[in-house]
Model the fold of this input.
Amino acid sequence: MQAFGVNELISAVSGQCLQAGQAKEITGAKIDSRKVLPGDLYIPIIGKNNDGHRFIEGAVDNGAAAVLVDANHSVNVPESITVIQVASTFDAMKKLALANRKRFDIPVVAVTGSAGKTTTKDLIAAVLSQKFSTLKTIGNLNNAYGIPQTLFGLSEGHECAVVEMGMDHMGELTESIWEVLPHIAVITNIGSAHLENLGCKENTLKAKKEICSTLEAEDFCLVNGDDPYLRQIKDEKYRVVRVGINHEDVDLKADNVTTGKSGIDFDVSGEHYHFKIPGIHNVYNCLMAIWIAREYGIDGRAVQRAFDEFVPSGNRMKTENIGEVTFIDDSYNANPESVRAAVNAVFDMCESENGRFIAVLGDMLEIGESGAKAHYDCGVFAASKADALIAVGEISRENTMAGFSSVKKDAAFSAKDAEEAVALLSDFIRPGDTVLIKASHGMALDRMIPLLKEAKS
Done:
């Protein structure tokens, strides 16, 4: 964050100074008292389970120069600490994020989508970083609390920013997009994620389209031009750009696409590209990064360099070998579209190998009333590619396993959790096998590889 003078800060958050303190300026802002650094402002957020006001003392101990306090709370801190009262600390956080964002006249890209948004965000940032000092969303800071924290990170040295925006209900993107004010809004796809709250894909499209709310005539909405729902976005006040593989009317098209163990290869306007993570779905992610690169004058060699250096965030198609078995950890999250994409990608990796493809598929959460059928269908699809299945969790045991078994009998097994899945795998795997681990984050299957390593040691 570029430093705020105390009076400037008070104005930005529509606050009232209760205690002047000694601070002349604030150099950062945190909502987690444990992460406060000397000179920071601590913003105590009132959540469902915790009230951040309880941790003000800890924030002060860590060096907070100023604290916000909700109108319904009182605070007792040393006289050296600046205390600013606001009507709502949550609203004040968002106001401060907007104030910091408005200081910078730089290109800002906002990314959302039912699947692939983190990889797309990382790819766009990797490509832009070849030419510009680029801020990007780190970790899972993509919600109403995380987006302000990303924007607090904007400082004088940044030349552009890429902000990931997640959502699970109507109106959520609208609440945050006015802080981000992007020049390019990216929507990766419209899938089955969050149908529990949104009900249908038509509503998902409406909710995702909220990311375009602040776009002006000179701004862009960049979408997957092969997605039947995103193809409905047209004749808007902003410019719509489509990338794709299967339709000729897209603005940027990939040709000669091949995928295998070494990754994907494709051509765009006569230029050849290679991306080391397999899966056709990654072509779309790459295309979006290529289009933005061209928009900002980054040539194909720099783009390929970014692709070569790319490291995915979190547990996304993370490859690790234990002995002579290859594990693909994609356990960060799951919905029907991302499960199919992951199964396809790992199948492509295994095509030229002699070992088996074992799919460990856990419950997909938040996909609503269609959950049972969606799990069953994923089981059927997995059976068309994988040699064996371990279904983890109650929903997967009842439905994914049934779908798989309808195609391949006696090749599906079930486990209640990561520990049981590891016990099954330990007895089942053999040298040369490739194992995909895919489930919603709440299933905690990211524990499997550490548990397997522990069992081997």
Observations:
- The domain at 104-309 is CATH 3.40.1190.10 (UDP-N-acetylmuramoyl-L-alanine:D-glutamate ligase).
